[in-house]
Write a structure and sequence with these properties.
It is built from four helices and eight strands; from the N terminus they run E-H-E-E-H-E-E-H-E-E-H-E. It has about 220 residues and is α+β, with helices and mostly antiparallel strands. The chain has two domains: about 70 residues, 2-Layer Sandwich (Alpha-Beta Plaits), CATH 3.30.70; about 80 residues, 2-Layer Sandwich (Alpha-Beta Plaits). It has an eight-stranded antiparallel β-sheet with strand order 4-1-3-2-6-7-5-8, covered by helices on one side. A hairpin with a 4-residue loop joins strand 2 and strand 3. Helix 1 packs antiparallel against helix 3. About 20% of the residues are buried.
């Protein structure tokens, strides 16, 4: 069963967040790790992950670690994908490429030799060590894509680190991670139909006196 585990931690800085994520990806079955900065919480998703054992490991390295919730991870319905401009980087030999500074980045790296759980854990551990990383996930039809999200992550340096451990690692895309805007519900508009106004005069007979010359025009 795929579980979603939320753990409360005292993470003061980026170094503490990286340390917590490294501990999480060491656990068996973990496929996704995300740190929520505002709440000081870490979300761990994976197949049959031992939440108690994971929390115990975190308590050895942090002063405080507590399980907020453990629940079954349900598959979300496919949403309409918005077309986003994707920048594909092709590193050239002898040329150092420096992209324009992007605050929140989504990096997708193809790592071929991630056949076993140990290999996937090793790849995720390398990713969470990179500066600025806040989210790591294994994706793709064959589970061979490493998705990394963070603030100003050096994608070239990260890919080179993966190439040292794996024979092949290819940087597929780097794009800005946009926040999902809440869909605004359309308010029901009441259309008022204006009927044409008709003005008319109704004539009433007014009785005249005995004078026969009395008349109403």
């Amino acid at each position: 069963m795929k579980k979603k585990i939320v753990i409360k931690l005292q993470m003061k800085d980026a170094k503490c967040r990286s340390k917590a994520m490294q501990t999480a990806v060491d656990a068996d079955g973990v496929t996704k790790v995300e740190v929520q900065k505002d709440k000081d919480e870490m979300v761990v998703i994976g197949e049959e992950v031992d939440s108690v054992r994971l929390t115990k490991s975190l308590r050895k390295k942090f002063q405080y670690a507590d399980i907020v919730s453990v629940q079954e991870e349900r598959k979300k319905k496919e949403e309409e994908k918005k077309k986003e401009e994707t920048v594909t980087l092709t590193p050239l030999p002898g040329i150092s490429y420096c992209p324009y500074p992007i605050h929140e980045q989504k990096i997708v790296i193809n790592v071929v030799k991630m056949n076993c759980e140990k290999c996937k854990s090793k790849a995720m551990k390398i990713a969470v060590k990179a500066k600025g990383v806040t989210k790591v996930e294994i994706q793709g039809e064959h589970k061979d894509q490493l998705v990394v999200i963070g603030d100003e992550v050096d994608s070239v340096k990260l890919t080179r680190s993966l190439r040292k451990e794996f024979q092949y690692a290819n940087l597929l895309s780097v794009q800005e991670e946009k926040e999902k805007k809440e869909e605004k519900k359309e308010e029901e508009k009441i259309t008022l139909m204006q009927w044409p106004t008709m003005s008319y005069y109704q004539q009433y007979p007014i009785p005249c006196g005995p004078n026969p010359s009395c008349s109403i025009m």
